Amino acid sequence: MPAKRIPVIDIQPLGGRTRPHDETITAIGAACREYGFFHIIGHRIPADLIERVWRETKRFFALPLDAKRVVSRSKENARGWYNRELTKNARDMKEVFDFGHTPRPELLDEDPANWTQDGFNRWPDARLCPDFRPTMQEYFRACERVAFTLLEAIAESLGVPPDTLTHDFVGRHTSFVRLNYYPCHDPLCLERPASATGHLGIHPHTDAGALTVLLHDDVSALEINLDGQWILVEPVTGALVVNIGDIVQVWSNDRYPAPVHRVRASTNRERYSLPFFFNPVYEAIYAPLAAVTNEQSLPRYRPITWGDFRWKRQQGDYADYGPENQISDYRIPGVDGA
Q: What pTM did the predictor assign?
């Protein structure tokens, strides 16, 4: 039997005033139901912007360690550089740099008005990376546009108006971009190959938010778990990879399961990727949509507050505090599927 390949969907028809996009909506719904992953083309992010993003990403991670440590993130400020990321209490073989949505972009990043639950943005020394900040901010805005388009499409695929899912994202969402660098060596021990540690680039997990829009290079390492088998996500030239997260699984009442995925540790080639995590406002409360529940399909989850869920999950990035917070903790006992 040939290996499964996640679908490639052209999203260019989305966002029009007429409805030639019904086939696209249907394809997205089918991909969410069967895979939780899909490639997208027709996303309208300019190729020259993507080239600049790659250049700045590689330039940043090539900086001396001391220059990166200046913007190290912490439990108090989750934005910045880090090389000790944990997933499910196991250290990932990578370095990361996070930056996120700024509530008041006209003010300084460190202004109290720009402090969020996740912290505030910090940027590398402009003398070392003069184009890093403007390029990354431009890319953030481009991903934001794509994510809103996709979330509206997912809403329609579930039979609800497009703005049903986006109202907790408009203006004040808590999304962030993560720059991932997977070296061929353990980032904490330059002499030790990453593949010899027994760890992975990222350990198996589901994404906590609504959806993830991923830009990754041509190194095959991302895998999804389908029916108990790990399936490699082969890169598609010019495409972005999208996966749904726990919030969509809850909204859909398990109709669209958030996929378990992982990243292999790098071996003979370095790897880079940039996920955009699309997350709602901290005070957002999500639960199964009324449109997908009835007497035969009762709600399987009690309401979840995003800010609380995000905070508990975020703390597990830095230390082992026991079992990681999961949406399964919010399942309603006795309901079918619980």
A: 0.94
